[in-house]
Structure formats: C-alpha cells, structure tokens
Design goal:
Layout (H helix, E strand, L loop, with lengths): L9 H11 L29 H7 L19 H4 L14 E6 L32 E2 L5 E5 L5 E2 L6 E4 L3 E3 L2 E3 L3 E6 L6 E2 L30 H4 L2 E3 L8 E2 L1 E6 L12 E2 L1 E4 L6
Antiparallel strand pairs: 1-3, 2-13, 3-12, 4-11, 5-10, 5-14, 6-7, 8-9, 8-12
The structure holds calcium ion (2 copies).
C-alpha cells in the first residue's frame, strides 16, 4: 500500500524525510522579493489588485483571493492578449489568486516568491521546504508575465510539489491542475485517483531540479508532474490553477505543497 501521509502531518512527514536524509536536507530559503514587502507587486509590477493582498498573506485558513485571474490586479499584461517581447520567463512570475484551506501552515507569508521562479527540489528522497501549503481544498492561481504555455510534442509544463520517495513508495499529496487562457474559463486535468500512480494528479513525482535548469525543462531529468495541453484539446494557456483535493481530508492524505510551475513549451521562446 502506498504511503500517502499528510494533512497536519505534512511537515512532520517532511521532517521525517529530512531526518532520514539528513546529509541532503535542504535549507529553507527566504526569497528576498517575497520578504521585501507584503505586496506581490514587488516582483513585477502587478500592483493594486485584490489578488495581491490575498497573496500577501494573513492568517491561514481563510478564503483569500479577491479579484479573479481575469482581472489580475493592475498588470495590463494579464488583462490583454499575450504579446511576446523576446523570450518570456519559463517559471511562474505572479500569484494571481489564492484560497487557502485548513492545514495551511507553511509558506504563505513568503508569497509570491516561494512559488515563483524555479523549484528548489530536494531530489529523490527529501521534500523541499521552499513551498507554500494550500491547505485542504485550497487553491492557488499562477501567471507568467510575458509568456504562456503552448502545446508542443509531449508535456508542455511541469508542476513541482515536494513529493519524494519514501521506502518503496512515494510521499504524495495530491491536487488537481487546471489551465486557462483567459483566467475565466478553466480546464481541469482529471484527478480522482487515490492510489499510485495517481492518474493526472499533481504532487506525486519527486522534484529533481533545484534552481535554474541548464537547458529546456524536461520532466525526465528535472522531475515534477508533467502536463500536456493536448490531453485537454488545448493549444495554449496562460494561467495555471492548482486545487488541493478537498476529498482527501484525513490525516493520511496530505495537503498540496507548491514549489513552482515551469513551462516546457513557451509561447514566447
Ligand atoms: Ca503537448
Ligand atoms: Ca519554491
């Protein structure tokens, strides 16, 4: 039977893994952007939106997310059609919206930096702490300023949680991944599995990448949970929303810990 620890046990599980792999224990990082102020606008100009305040934190457990992805604060880049201005960022740049659930106990005060940019993966056998817990049933919406995801051969983007191998199983904490082109209409990759290999749920594959990759993102070498827009019949997406599985509320099924989201096939290469 798979090991699927969790909920309030999420960090305990992480701690256990760190103890098991003490020599490889990742060091919690403090993103200078995130801690530079409560405003997500510090990272790239998305100032003024209600979503920014939601991302800025507060007490865990409440419903955040005033302001939808369609009206992403004051950033015209998200309100208008994507126009490429050279190569776009390959990792999420903005937290557009949040709605945290019970069990949100880590990382919220470090938004947006803790979930933007590249992952800080802990490798096969330990989970990164550079993550934000969503809480049970919680969600987070990310955007890529100046870029989008397009359908190319195979997987088009990767969601990085902090899953890791634990014995012969995987410490998995599941979420549904959704994409949108306009921030209004969403398309979900089906995630209803409760046993390995967890179907199209995110939060199952260890994160092997830590920091910027040397080349294009590749789930085979960088880990994470890969997604193919073609599976949903889509050709492009600009926003990724991750929704913790609300039905997995027991202490044996944890809450999703988001590290990063990266593009394999960028709209602005
Ligand atoms: Ca594809
Ligand atoms: Ca991170």
């Amino acid at each position: 039977m798979q090991t699927s620890l969790a909920g309030p046990l999420a960090l305990i599980g992480i701690a256990a893994a760190l103890a098991a792999c003490a020599s490889e224990a990742p060091v919690p990082t403090t993103d200078p952007v995130a801690t530079g102020g409560a405003s997500a606008g510090g990272e790239g100009g998305m100032g003024g939106g209600g979503a920014v305040a939601a991302a800025g934190g507060g007490d865990a457990g409440g419903a955040g997310g005033a302001g939808g992805a369609g009206g992403a604060g004051g950033d015209p880049g998200f309100d208008e059609p994507l126009v490429c201005d050279g190569p776009g960022p390959l990792f999420a740049t903005h937290v557009i919206d949040t709605s945290f659930g019970p069990g949100q106990s880590w990382g919220r005060d470090q938004l947006p930096g803790i979930v933007t940019g590249p992952p800080e993966g802990g490798g096969c056998c330990s989970g990164s702490l550079d993550v934000c817990l969503l809480g049970n049933g919680g969600s987070i919406t990310l955007g890529f300023a100046g870029n989008g995801i397009v359908d190319g051969p195979g997987a088009d983007f990767i969601v990085f949680e902090n899953a890791f191998e634990f014995g012969e199983s995987v410490f998995a904490e599941l979420a549904t991944v959704e994409v949108s082109e306009d921030g209004v209409t969403w398309h979900a990759f089906p995630c209803d599995a409760i046993a390995e290999p967890y179907g199209r749920c995110a939060g199952y594959h260890p994160v092997l990448l830590s920091g910027e990759p040397d080349g294009p993102l590749d789930p085979a070498t960088h880990g994470g949970d890969p997604y193919d827009l073609a599976d949903l019949g889509l050709v492009q997406a600009r926003f990724v929303r991750i929704v913790d599985r609300p039905d997995l509320a027991s202490e044996l099924d944890g809450v999703f810990d988001l590290d990063a989201v990266g593009i394999i096939h960028p709209a602005c290469p």
